Amino acid sequence: MGSSARDLVLVDDVLLRILSLSDIPSVVLVGQTSRHFHNLAFSKQVWLALLSDLHARNFVDLIPGQRLHDLSTNELVDLAKRIVLGPRSWSSSHPSGSTLAQQIAVKANVYGGPGSLYWENCAHLLSGGQFCLFLKSKSLECWDLAQSKVVWIYQGNWPESWVTRFAIEVVEGGQKVIILVAVRVLAQPERENFVEVLNLDLSTGTSKTILSWRGPDSENDNSFSYCKICGDFGLLGFIDLDLPSQVILLQISTESCVILDMPKKYSIDLLPAHLILMRPSLLSDSLEIVIWMMQALVNSNSQGEIFTRIEDVAPAAVLTLPDPQSNAFYLSSHLSPLCEDSSILWILTSSLQPSSRGEGLAIHKWHISHPKSKPLTLHPISSKSFPDIVYPMPTGLRNVSFAGYMKYHDFIFSLAACHRDGFRVDLPHHGDNIQISPYSGTLVYSTREKIVVNYYE
């Protein structure tokens, strides 16, 4: 081999190493420059490295038993496309429509009390695709889907209690999961509410409590309306009869807590180190997106007052939407697998009736950049209005995927495609709680006998 040939091999080795450490958009752009660079950019070495990194950062769901090393280059590229675009068969251009690739059904002791299938039983796939958390009969279990067995059961510190809500975040490359649990204690006379944060080791099935906090007492047995965790912070919605809506904000590392009094109508989510809120504008007949630094909200109780009006804390950013105030509105955010320190924000607003004033339906997609050392910025990606369409609004848009898919009854709707009609998915005997995995489009639900996980082509 001549020196020029050896130099070319050496250069290619260096380029492969550089591409393996790049992000997907950069690799795709390099692959468009020449045939030689295309061959390098779309080699298995590069895409195995890219997908391994995404898998370690909880963006890839694999079918139990599946390994990235066993996939071809095209299969690895298709896996990346699924993260960004959703299942291929969910596209309107797919000739066969929604197509089931594989189904896993594990037999579980599903609680079958009156009406329980429709609201109590809730299955949630952990990122990575190997484990599932299942809330049933007022208890919480972790299932190993490959082995079809329970590897962990939540054990509370109260003899008469039940789990009402939970949220999860997989950490340490899929080895552990942080679980935020909302607990209702039924013992008379106080009927207390508690919040716990647990660290579950998936390899051993053991957990340790890292935070336990007594929440406000309530007459309502289902006072926690939603639950989310993101990094060092947890968020729980709290409602009790005629009292104003409140949000419980926890900082796990410091065991700090603040209860925020909320506006009458709002939609809320978490970004890394930020809280994002959608509400009717206080100054005009429009909607606005308001973002706060989480630390500023936690520090708002520095005077010892646990209750804080969220309007009294200075926000980090405020964005006014062009839409007039709507009857219903939701927002949902997901970390972006394509850009570091950034998220995608989906916004859906809808009126109850079509209107010539342009109120109907509006769908917005935004990119949010939230680097640790720089100010947060927002940039619009797409926006579309349908004044003559009344869009079916779900009970919440927190179960929307990164690609913009959401479920309503037996239909899947695409916010990205802005289609008027969705497509039906066949989920026999399912209850109300159906999870769309945020980066794979996997559907997870329970029947009267099983936990079912559907993977689509």
Automatic annotation (TrEMBL):
It comes from the Eukaryota. This is F-box domain-containing protein.
